Amino acid sequence: MGLADCATEVADSEGACGLAPTPSRRVTVTDLGWVERVESALVDIDVLSLDIFDTALTRTLESPVDVFALTEARLVQLLGDEARGYAKSREDAERAARAAEVRVEDVRFDAIIDRLVTHKPELARHRKLIGEEEIRAEELVLRATPDVLAAYRRARELGCRIIFVSDMYHSTETLAKWLRKHGYDHWDELLVSGDIGLTKARGTIWSHIQDRIGPLDRILHIGDDSWSDEERPRQAGVNVLPYVAVRSERRFGAKLTPALLAHSFASRAEVIHPRPGGETKPAARHFFYGLGASFGSVVVGGFIRWLEQRAKALDVKHLYFCSRDGWLSHAAWLAAGLDRSGPSSSYLHISRQTLNLSAGYAESRNGRLSEELLSFLSGSWSAAPLATILGRCGLDGIDSIVASAKDEIGPLEAPLSRAEDVEKLKLILFRESRAVLDLLGPVHEATLAYLRQEGLSEDEHRALVDAGWHGSLQASIRQLMQSQGLRPRLSGFYYGLWPAARGRRLATGWMEGFVGSDYRTLSEQSGLHGVVDILEELFAAPHGTVVGYESGKGAAWSAVLSNRSEEMRQHDQAVVYFQQGVIETLREVFANGRSDCLRVENLTRDAAMAAIEQLGMAPTSLEIQHVGNLQHAADFDHSCFRPLLHLDERLALPEVADRISHSPWPAAIAKAIYQRSNPEDRPKVREAVLSRLAYLGERRLRSFH
Amino acid sequence: MLDQGEKAPLMLYESSREHRVEVGGKGAAEIVSIITRTKDRPVLLPRALASVLSQEFTDWHLYLVNDGGDRAVVEAILADYEAAFSGRITVIHNADGLGMEAASNAGLSLARGDYFTIHDDDDSWHPEFLARTVELLRSPANAGYVGVCTNCHIVNERIVGDRVIEDSLSTWGYFQRHIDMRNLLVRNSMPPITVLFRRSLLKDVAGFNPSLPVLGDWEFSLRALTLGDIAVIDEPLAYYHHRQPAAGAQYGNSVSHGVDRHQKFDVLLRNSAIRHALRADPSLVGILQPILHAVDELSGRVSELQQQNGRLMEALSERQSQVGDSRRRGEAGSYRRVLSYDEMRDLAKEVWWERNRRTLLYKLMRVVKAWLRK
Hints:
- The complex is a heterodimer.
- Chain A is α/β, with parallel strands linked by helices.
- Chain A has 31 helices and 16 strands.
- Helix content of chain A is 50%, strand content 11%.
- Chain A is elongated.
- The relative contact order of chain A is 0.10.
- In chain B, strands 1, 2, 3, 4, 5, 6, 7, 8, 9 and 10 form a ten-stranded mixed sheet that branches.
- In chain B, strand 3, helix 2 (71-85) and strand 4 (89-94) form a beta-alpha-beta unit.
- In chain B, helix 1 (45-53) packs parallel to helix 2 (71-85) and helix 11 runs antiparallel to helix 13.
C-alpha cells in the first residue's frame, strides 16, 4: 500500500488519528433572532454575499491553525517522527510566504507549501502528500452552519443572486468542493483571495465585485470578522449583517502540536453544540458547565489517568484525596470507576491550618514557639486585619495577647500590612509562647488522632493527592507522624510542584507532579502558574476549610468546618456547574471509552498541559468575563475573598504594567485591559503589555499586534 | 600529591580498594549510567535522587556511592524512594571515604550503559536533560562527539534545618557555545552536572584521577577532549547549586567552600601538565619562554593602561558632578566649557585605546608568533 492509499484509509476511518470527532455530528448552534433579521433584510437586496469560514462553514476545532496540528497527527501516523513539528513549521511557512508576497494581497496554498519544504527539506519528497493531508484534515473538521445555510436557501427561494467571498489560501476549486459537500450547491460567483489576489481585509475585493456583480448597495454581506466582514464592506457601501454565533477566537497559548487537539475539539464543541439554555451568550452556569466538560475534563481526566498509572507503578495501596482542592479529583476518580481497578481511596479532611498548627506545636521546643510556627501565625498574603489574624487560630481568646497587640501594634481593625508590625506580633506571640502552646495542644492531639484514625500511621505504601505546589502538606503530616516515632511510607501526587518544593524533599519523601515539576523554573511554567488560583477555586470541595476535629464519646473523629457564606455562594453559582461538567463528561468517557469529542486515550499529560496553557496564557473573552469574576482567598483561613481580575475599573496608563505584574492571571488581565482601553491609548497599553509579558514569547503575544 | 612517586600527572587511576555493593538490581534497559557521590548530606541527597527520578528519559541506572558516610541515613532516605527506583539503583557503601574521583571510579567500574554522567548529590537536572543529551549523542550525525554538555542555571542557596532555601537563580557565566580546547585549558566551563559522555571513551582515558581532591572533573574533561569534541546544547538543562561557606564543611560546595584548595590544585595541575610536556620534549622551553615573556609584557602594559583608565574615569566623573553642581546653581556651564583642551585630548585618546586595544594586542601577538617561526 502506498502512502497516498494509506492516507485515504486514514482519512476515511473516523478518528484514525484518535482525535477526530464524530463526522456526522452537525453544528447545532442557532440564533433564531438573527435568522429572522436576515429574512427581512433579504427582501430589499439583489445579491447575498457570504463569507465562508466561520460563516457558511465552520470547523470543529477551536482555532483555525489547529488544523495544522491535526494534519501533523495524521502525517506522523503516515511518515513517522520526521513529520513531528510539522504544525509549527506550517504556521511559520505561511507567515514567511505572506511576508515575501508583494505582488498580490494574499498567498496561495502552493506558495506556502513551497516555503515549508524549503525550511524543512526532509519533507520535500512528501510535498504532494502534505498538501493532500492538510486538505483532508480540513474536510474532516468542516461543517455547515445551519443558520447561514437557512439564509442561503431562503435567498435562493427569493431569487437573489449568491456570491461567496473568502480571504483564503486554498484554491477556488477546493472551496467549491467543500461548499457543495455541505449543501451550498449553487452560486453566481466564488471569489477567493488566494486566486484573485484581492482581499476583504483591505477592501479591494469590493470594487472587483462591483465590476462583476453590479451596485454594491444592492448586496447584503454576511460574515463574522468585525473588520473584514463589517467595517470594510460598510466603508465600500455594502449592506452588512454580521454573523458571530460560530466565530472562532484565535488562541496561541499552547504549543502548536497535536497535544492541543483534545482541548480544541472539546472547547469548540461547547460553542457549536450548545447545551439547552446555553446558546450564543451563555449565562454563568452554562459557561462553567461547558468549561468543565472541556478544559476541566481534559485536565482532570488526564490527571486521574496519570494517577492510576503512577499509583500502580509505585505499588501504592491507598490514595488520600486531600481537602479541599483534591475534592474534584476524587469525585472524578470515583465517577471514572478507577477505585475498582486502582488502589483504594478516601477523602482526607485536612487543611494548612490544622497541619501547620499541629506540626508547629510538635517542633516547638522548651515551651517556645518555633520560627516557622510564628511566621504561620502572624503571616497574611492579603494584609488581613489584625483581629482576623488573631481570630483565625483562636489567639483572640488569650487576653494578654490581644491587649499587647492593641498597645504595641494598633487598632484590631487595621490591616496588618507593615513588616515591622508583623515582627511586633511575632514578638508578642513569642513572649506568650506558653499560652499559645496551651491553646494548640488540643489541636495537635485531635489532628494526630484523626490522622491515625484515617490510617496515616499504617506501614503500607500510601499517597496523598492534592493540587500542589510546595509539598508542605506532605511534609507536615510526615513530621507529625515522625514526632510520634512513626515513619509512614507516604508519597504524594500533585498537579504541579514549584521549585521551592525540591528543597524540602527530605521532609516530604517521594512526590511527583503531573504537569508541573519542581525541576522546572517558574518562568518555564508560567502557563500553569497563571491558572493556580483558578484551579484552586474550581477544584475545591463544597465545604469550608477544616479548622479542627471533634469526637463524641467513643465516636469517630470528624472535621470541624468553617463554611463561609461567600465561598458557598460562589460554589452554588459557578463551581458546582464546572464540577458537574467534569464529572459527567469523565463518567461517560471512562464508561464508553469516549464521548462526542474526547477519547480516553487522549487524556494525557501533554493534552492537559495544552489546555492549561490555553486558559493560562491565551484566555478567550468569555473565559476572562466569567472566570475572572471568581473570588479567590489566598490566606489559609479563607477570610479575605478577592476577584481574580479587577475588570470594572479603567486604569491610568502608568498603572497598567503594575497591575499586570501583580495579577495572578497576567495574560487575562492584560487582554482585558487592552480590549477596554481607548483606541488612542492602545499603543502605550500594548507597549506595557509586551514589556511585562515578554516571557510568553512572540507567538503568544500576537493577539496584541 | 599530584606527582608523588613520579606518576605522570595525567596517569589513570586503577583502584585497588575494595568496595561493597550493598543494594542493587537491574530494572529497565541501562542506556545511561549515572554516578552520584554522597557523604553525610541527607538534606541534599533526596533532591538529587528526585532529580534523576524526574527525568523524562527513563532508561538509566543510578550508581549511588556512599563514600564513607552514615549508611543508616542513606538507607532511611532510600526507603522512601525504593518504589520509584524500581530496581534502577545500585548503592555502593565505602566504609571509608575514598575521595570524590575514586568514588566516581567505583561507580563507573559497575556501569554498563552506552553513556555515563556524574550527578553530584548537591546538583540537579531539568527533567529533559537526559532526553535531550541522549538524543543528540544517538544521532548518527553526531557520532564524532565523545560527549555533550548543556548550559545551566546557577542556584544560590542555603540550608535551614531540613530544608534548602533557594535564594537566587542566574545563568552560568562561564558557559561556552563551543567547547574550545584552548578555553577549557584555561577554565572549566563544564560543571559535571551539565555533561554526558559516551562510556566507550573510558577504554582510552579510563576513569577519574583519584589523586585530585578537587578539579577531577576538569582534568577528566581535558583528557576526554583529546579523543574528540564535546557537543553543546545551549539551553539551561541543569542546575549547578552553590552554597556559601557558612553552610559548613558538610554542606559547602567544593567550589565555594574550598576556594583555596581549588586555587592550589589549579596551580599544581597546570605545573604538572607543563612538567609532563617538558619532560617529553625539553625543547618546548625555547618556544614557551619568548611567548610567555611577550604575554607578560603585554599584561604589564594592559595593567598600566587600566590604571590610567581608572584615573581618567575618576576625573571625568568629577567633572560631570561639577557640571551638575553649576547647573543646579543656575550657572551657564556646559560639559565642553568645563573640560580643558588637554583633558579633552586625554579623553579622546582613552576612548581610542578602548576601541582599538584588542586589535593592537592581536597584531602584537602575530608579530611575536612570526618572530618565533623564524
